[in-house]
Design brief:
This protein is α/β, with parallel strands linked by helices. It is 36% helix and 28% strand.
């Protein structure tokens, strides 16, 4: 949490993925792609994968990429995967990149920062369309802007857990 506050919190007007503007931005990759942040995140994601009985960890590229890889670095016995935003038009034309997943494989869907939940919902839908099970969903940080509710609705009973929220990282924010 301190690492997110120190390295990832950016104060100032920004346009979010959703198209909304905000007076602050949390670029979690600025904290989780440092050695200490990556190691700590890996332990948390490994634990979440084990708790969910997941054999694979991933989500929509690019927010999920470092989160999924951190679990591998922490020694999780899982496969990492990335869900493409658009189907690749050459090669194998896959939606989901990484090692082959077994039919019905239990997947932990991960995301770095959740605002509206749109990217995570897209990953959940694609994983299910490809024949895999959503075991649980984890985000590094939830901005508490309605995304958690959207994810819970899409997850169909699979638990959603943010590792931290904006209340922890920026308790004095102007929109609180």
């Amino acid at each position: 949490m301190a690492a997110l506050r120190e390295h990832a919190l950016v104060i100032g007007e920004v346009t979010l993925t959703s198209g909304r503007t905000a007076q602050y931005y949390v670029d979690a990759k600025r904290a989780i792609l440092l050695p200490q942040g990556f190691a700590a995140l890996g332990e948390l994601v490994r634990g979440a994968a084990e708790d969910a009985g997941a054999g694979a960890v991933g989500g929509l590229t690019m927010g999920a990429d470092p989160v999924a890889c951190s679990a591998l670095a922490a020694g999780a016995d899982v496969k990492a995967f990335f869900v493409r935003k658009d189907r690749k038009q050459h090669g194998l034309q896959r939606w989901i990149e990484g090692p082959e997943l077994d039919p019905g494989e239990r997947c932990l869907i991960v995301e770095d920062v959740v605002t509206t939940g749109g990217s995570t919902v897209q990953a959940i839908e694609r994983v299910r369309e490809e024949g895999f099970e959503v075991a649980a969903v984890v985000s590094v940080l939830d901005r508490l802007a309605g995304g958690g509710e959207a994810i819970e609705a899409a997850a169909g009973g699979a638990p959603y857990t943010p590792l931290t929220t904006i209340d922890d990282v920026y308790p004095d924010r102007p929109d609180r």
